[in-house]
Every structure is written in C-alpha cells, then in structure tokens.
Amino acid sequence: MTDLPTAENPLRIGTRASPLALAQANMAASALIAVHGIAPDTLQIVPMTATGDRIQDRALAEVGGKALWTRELDAALDADEIDIAVHSLKDVETLRDPRFALVAMLERADPRDRLVVREGVDAVSIADLPHGARLGTSSPRRAAQVKRLRPDIVTTLLRGNVATRLGKLAAGDVDATLLAAAGLDRLEMFDIGAVQGADLLLPAASQGAIGIECRSDDDKVRALIAAIDHTPTHVAVAAERAFLAALGGDCRSPVAAYAHFRADGSLRLDAEIFSDDGAEHAAGHVLVTGAGDAGALAHRLLDEAPEAVRRLFSA
Ligand SMILES: NCc1[nH]cc(CCC(=O)O)c1CC(=O)O
C-alpha cells in the first residue's frame, strides 16, 4: 500500500518560482490529489530560484547549460528539504545523477512552438516575416531553424521568463519570437501567437512534457508519484531523450527531436541536427512498428537509437 502524505507530514513539492514553473507544480499537485484522493493541505509547494533564473544576460550554453535549471532543486532533494521536484523536462539534462529518479511525466501538452510578433508586424509563420526581421530567442535550436528557413532574418538573444520575453517583444526590442505552445497555454495565454507545424519547426526533445523526480532510494515517494505517470508521454519522451543521449552528452549542436505514437500504434521519432547558423542540416526519422506494447516499442527504439543516429546523420 502506498503511504499517503498527511497535513502534519506533507509531501514537499519543489519547483522553480517562475509563473510557468508554479503552474506546472500545481498541475502535478492536482494530479496527485485526484489520483490518491488526498486533501490539498497534504501537499506543500516549495518555490526556489534557480541560477538560470538569475542569469539573464547570457546564453545559458556559455555559462553551464541545463544544470543551471536543476542545481538548486537537486541540492534541496538531496538535503531532504523537498520530496519531489517538478521540472519542464526540456530544461533537464539527459544524463542525470543516479541519486535522482525521473519517475513520472504528466500528459504532454502541445509540443509545438508558436510564433509571436510585435504589434505592427503581420505574420503567422516564419515565411511571412518581413525581410530582415529581428527574431529573439534563447534557443540555439530555434535560431538555427529560423536561419535555415529564412537566412535574411537576424536572430538575437532574448532571455527571461515568458512574461519578460513578451514584454521585450511589446517594447520593440525584437520583431518576433518563438515560444512553446505548452508554456503559453499553461499560463492561459491561449490567444498569443500562431502555432508552427512540427514539419517546419520540429520541437525540442521533451518540449511540452512535465517531469517529476524524487530521490532514487525514496520508495514511498516513488510509488506515490508513479501513480500519476502518463505512459505514452513517458515512452515517447524517453525515446527523444535516449536519442539525445545517443548523440552524446557533449553534443553542442542544435538538435530537434520529437516522438509520437501514431494511430496504428507505431512509434515514430523525427530528429534534426543543425549547424549553429542553420546552413548545415540533417534530418531523418525512425519508425518502430509491430507487436508489443508501448514499453516494448520504446525499448526497441532505444536499442536502435545509436544506430539510428548513425543512419540519420551519416551523410
Ligand atoms: N526554456 C524555457 C522553457 N522550458 C519549457 C518551456 C515551455 C514548457 C514546455 O516545453 O513544457 C519553456 C518556455 C519556452 O520554450 O517557450
């Protein structure tokens, strides 16, 4: 039997303090409340500031990469100050310390990007943007994808949380930006921006997925959060992350990877890799079909990932 948290001994949910991170932590809390039938006061949200939230003026790849989003939450988990950490999985390193276990993922939201333009710019796709438009992003993937589609567009660094970026766009710092539909929707900004098809702008690995970690040796909490795992999301996102891992942890090239189940039950992984300026580009997909449940398909995809990487990107 799962040991349930109590008001005296609540489950402490660690999260970054940004509005998006808090919304995601609350989604995890709601899922736990619903599945276990527990009272809201048996859960406690513990917001923390990550180094990545403090550094606003540089590209994160220059100063330490994705660990800047996880370091504080990792330390708090390790010190038993929180019991679980809720992350935008896109921002979590592929190779994690074995002391932490990524046990559950919530059902994935829209994985695509939306193009958001400032007032006075009339565009619903990258192709529509005016000649020489300035597009702000902090994502090397988005910058490379945009430059590949539109070499005339000038990409500049745009950092900060979603509201900060939208503020800089409104102020005219840039003409356009790309933001994850998932983040905008979770902030209830349903009308902001125009969705870009995954065929033109393949999403980042894990985009739209929320991951929930705990201490690997914490069996009680593991059981508690395993109950809210969404298996199809977990399988597809695991395939994307295995693909990144197969590319190698030191791969600094912009990469896009998106896996999804098709109506016939097969699992398809699409991937692209770019040079920073988008001039060089390789793309491909792997399709795993046949008998077996989602887990079996995913394992096959994972087994095939190193070979798939060679096949996709050996031109
Ligand atoms: N790097 C920031 C980040 N990390 C996750 C999301 C969106 C939410 C998600 O992908 O689940 C965002 C904002 C964005 O890219 O627009």
UniProtKB/TrEMBL annotation:
Similarity-based family: Belongs to the HMBS family.
Keywords: Porphyrin biosynthesis, Transferase
GO cellular component: cytoplasm
PANTHER family, per the entry: PORPHOBILINOGEN DEAMINASE (PTHR11557:SF0)
SUPFAM superfamilies: Periplasmic binding protein-like II, Porphobilinogen deaminase (hydroxymethylbilane synthase), C-terminal domain
Catalytic EC class: transferase
Short name of any one Pfam family annotated for the protein: Porphobil_deamC
Record text on subunit structure and interactions: Monomer.
CC cofactor note: Binds 1 dipyrromethane group covalently.
Top-level taxon of origin: Bacteria
Domain Porphobilinogen deaminase C-terminal: 236-302
Residue ranges of domain Porphobilinogen deaminase N-terminal in the record: 11-222
Protein's recorded name: Porphobilinogen deaminase
UniProt EC number: 2.5.1.61
Reaction catalyzed: 4 porphobilinogen + H2O = hydroxymethylbilane + 4 NH4(+)
InterPro entries per record: HemC, Porphobilin_deaminase_cofac_BS, Porphobilin_deaminase_N, Porphobilinogen_deaminase_C, Porphobilinogen_deaminase_C_sf
Species this protein is from: Sphingopyxis witflariensis
Misc: The porphobilinogen subunits are added to the dipyrromethane group.
